[in-house]
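In the design runs reported in the main text, the only information available to the sequence generator was the tokenized backbone. The following block is the verbatim input for one such run; it is reproduced so that readers can re-run the procedure and compare outputs position by position.
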């Protein structure tokens, strides 16, 4: 998680907060992006004239800093299962966003998609498959594609509803979790890739709907048993004034 308010200082700060703990621990600077599958590394991004990727240990270890001169902005990231590489969404100056593969020890990132992906606040708009061989993403025309991480032709996902946002894969890699926003609630669908059919998997609905605006992110474990989400709430006060002349 990151904090851009009082606890984040002048720039955003990255924190690690374990589910069973109540006190977050600051790992470093930047906006939080992703935790490695083994939980040993955390990714964060810095912005400004020279944006960087920070790879910070969650325990003992030395932080790493990755700078890519051709990348003007970083948005979201997702780790590959080997804990040594990750996929991030970014864009070069005056170019649209695309996905890249990056090694945590540095080096030049390798693009794996053409320019023109829909980077979504829900979870990035892309997700890496359990075997690390594929990544699913949204294009700007609301179509969903699966790209091979090592290169090759993409495969279009069929049978989904326009506007569905991919947020994850099932544990066996045969289905996708898709996010769809409803009226006052948020719906997660499980989309069978072979059948091209979506079924309602989970409906997320805050207990207090007053002022609910939008959802910012949704996270699911691969087995679908645990999830977390955040949302924005805009509240206002109504006043009555008597005796106005």
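Verbatim output:
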């Amino acid at each position: 998680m990151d904090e851009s308010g009082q606890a984040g200082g002048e720039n955003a700060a990255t924190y690690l907060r374990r589910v069973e703990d109540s006190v977050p621990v600051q790992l470093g600077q930047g906006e939080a992006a992703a935790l490695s599958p083994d939980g040993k590394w955390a990714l964060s991004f810095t912005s400004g004239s020279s944006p960087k990727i920070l790879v910070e240990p969650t325990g003992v270890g030395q932080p790493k800093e990755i700078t890519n001169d051709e990348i003007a902005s970083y948005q979201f990231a997702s780790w590959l299962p080997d804990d040594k590489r990750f996929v991030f969404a970014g864009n070069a100056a005056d170019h649209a966003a695309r996905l890249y593969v990056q090694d945590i020890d540095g080096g030049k990132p390798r693009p794996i998609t053409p320019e023109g992906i829909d980077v979504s606040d829900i979870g990035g708009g892309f997700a890496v498959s359990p075997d690390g061989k594929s990544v699913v993403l949204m294009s700007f025309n609301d179509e969903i594609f699966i790209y091979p991480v090592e290169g090759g032709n993409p495969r279009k996902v069929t049978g989904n509803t326009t506007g569905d946002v991919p947020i994850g894969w099932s544990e066996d890699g045969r289905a996708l979790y898709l996010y769809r926003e409803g009226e006052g609630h948020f719906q997660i669908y499980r989309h069978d890739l072979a059948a091209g059919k979506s079924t309602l998997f989970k409906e997320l609905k805050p207990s207090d709907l007053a002022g609910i605006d939008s959802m910012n992110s949704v996270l699911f474990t691969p087995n679908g048993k645990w999830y977390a989400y955040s949302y924005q709430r805009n509240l206002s006060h109504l006043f009555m004034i008597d005796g106005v002349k």
